[in-house]
Amino acid sequence: MDSLQEIDNTKIPNHLAIIMDGNGRWAKKQGLLRAFGHESGTKSVKKIIQACAEIGVNYLTLYAFSTENWNRPKLEVETLMRVLINSLKKEVDTLQKNNIKLNAIGNLNLLPKNAQKQLLEVINLTKDNTLMTLTLALSYGSREELTNAVRIISEKVKNNIISIDAIDDSIINQHLYTHNLPDVDLLIRTSGEHRISNFLLWQIAYAELYFTDVLWPDFKENDLHEAILSYQKRERRFGKTSEQIK
Ligand code: IPE
Ligand code: IPE
Ligand code: MG
Q: For a pLDDT cut of 90, what percent of the chain falls above it?
């Protein structure tokens, strides 16, 4: 049975982030090239985007390519970029039909020019959509994001635009790629790995973490619903006592 019926609609995570991992192992398990795993992973992406929009998630952020993924073999990087461009082209209609706005975070300048162009086109086309914000983390690394923020803030301090005393959480937030996104409520990682791999380190400070052994191409609506159910059973205390929360 699908766990959808058990979900409490009043406690849907506002911002859900997913580390979509396991494409390569999924392909290897069936004797296929890693590229097939990446192709297949896009089907899960489509399903999960729609399922999130239906269930009432307001912000969905997907880790699609990390700064460290540039170190993979050239052929695999090329495959991943091709898969990205093709699925952007293919899914514009899905985004429009479902009233979803596309956003991207990361060092986007490093992406091939045609990928940048395709990305900007879809971001622009969907900019007035209001149901859900879908953010793709591309050439994204949290350490780079934070380093970049420190550099910009320092420059502003040097030019007397910000005083040192004014630097607080909110100033740092405003200088991250995610400045227009709320903190993450639930972080899911597939494929049985229990690590964060340089994803949204600042933004997950109080996120609930959910790990599943399911490989990304096998991750279906029901797996998403189970993750949300697990999230709904937890008590988020944000440093307070249980009594204070009630
Ligand atoms: C996730 O799957 C996709 C990216 C990291 C781009 P992987 O390619 O990491 O698959 P595994 O972890 O090797 O199975
Ligand atoms: C994390 O997966 C990055 C993405 C899912 C895009 P990796 O497969 O690159 O992470 P590690 O290397 O196993 O930590
Ligand atoms: Mg991996």
A: 98
Q: Which residues are registered as beta bridge partners of 208?
A: 186
Q: Rounded mean pLDDT of 126-135?
A: 98
- What's the whole-number mean pLDDT along residues 205-217? 98
Geometric angle at alpha carbon 180, from 136 and 43, rounded to 5°: 20
Distance from residue 24's CA to the centre of ligand 1 (Å): 5
Contact 101, 234 (CB under 8 A): no
CA atoms within a 13 Å half-sphere pointing along the CA-CB vector of 67: 14
Give me ligand 1 centre to Cα 37, in Å: 8
pLDDT at 2: 81
Architecture of the CATH domain 3-234: 3-Layer(aba) Sandwich (3.40)
Which sequence spans correspond to the domains of the chain?
3-234
Instruction: Report which ligand 1 atom has the smallest distance to the Cα of 26.
Output: 14
